[in-house]
Specification:
seven-stranded mixed β-sheet, four-stranded antiparallel β-sheet, 13 strands, binds pyridoxal-5'-phosphate
Amino acid sequence: MRDFLKREIENLKKEYLYRERFILPEGVINFSSNDYLGLRNNEKTKKLICENINRLALGSGASALVSGFDKIQKELENELSKYKETESCLVVGSGYLANVGIIQALATKESIIFSDELNHASIIDGIRLSKAKKEIYKHNNLLDLEKKLEKYKNFNGLKIVITDGVFSMEGDIANIPKLYELQDKYNFILVIDDAHATGVIGNGKGTIFHYNLKPRENVIQIGTLSKAIGSYGAFICGIKELIEFLINKMRPAIFSTALSPIQNFISLENLKIAIKENFRREKIFKLSNYLVSELKKLDLNIKYFGTPIISLILGTEKEALRYRDELLKRKIFIQAIRPPTIPKGTSRLRITISYNHSQKDIENLISALKDIKKA
Ligand SMILES: *Cc1c(COP(=O)(O)O)cnc(C)c1O
């Protein structure tokens, strides 16, 4: 085994695709966290945990259907369905499990799934695990989607269109108004993965609300509690029959232990803060706009769509790694994103802005990039 693994690892290194985890040294500014609202270390929630620790179990003890469901999870689900303006909500282990599980539960051999080509890996894996037919449409290209829907106009099984709300690598936003139009015409279930939208766009309520639209009966909103909410776990919001069905059919919710009450407590308290404290969102948009306007002056290839995910496209894996390593020498961390996470030739630094960044952090980043570009 060792020889086989060594060979595989060597190949990754040769192609500049080798990865390792590392612990950020003290004093390094992190521009690669999804902790958009800066809630991961929130003092208020930490204090509340201390005050409530005696009534919080350390683990849930079982899957939700057996005995792992409790009052805190119920309250978290209620709060989330209110926030997302839906009838009901199911909290599950993670966003990865939510996507894999919902596709597996809803789609059968007689279903067809239409999926954006840049959807998150967990959606891709969910489609692979299901036995449904699939059509991959060009990124955010709803003309291409419509062509594919047209092809299946007389298809009798369930039709599901699934898209990231805010695309995790590009930072652009799915065109929900157009998707709603197509839904009226072609009658499908629309699944929106709001992992990067929740707490951030639409006043924090997500992609639908960003367009001043309302949830619909045939729309499912998924989100994670691990990004802007700064905790762990995920949720699925929709009509009450959907949640009832998933409780009975969704394997990652049935055959996996429920989240710990402590984790759900953190999610609940951080969620309340995310809902209330608009100033957190205002700051990340202000910093993002400023950073982009300065980087554009440097003639760098920037992708920006008004979300706190900003891409600096560098092309080759090698160049992306050079920028990452040079930045780290200057006490700034931005992870280089390489294939297979993104298409070949578009290796990049994916910059994410957090409430915890200061104006000075942004200035430091700008001058570091200026230096590295010159060298
Ligand atoms: C991060 C992410 C997930 C996975 O969520 P986890 O809770 O981290 O498992 C799913 N979908 C998208 C679009 C993501 O960005």
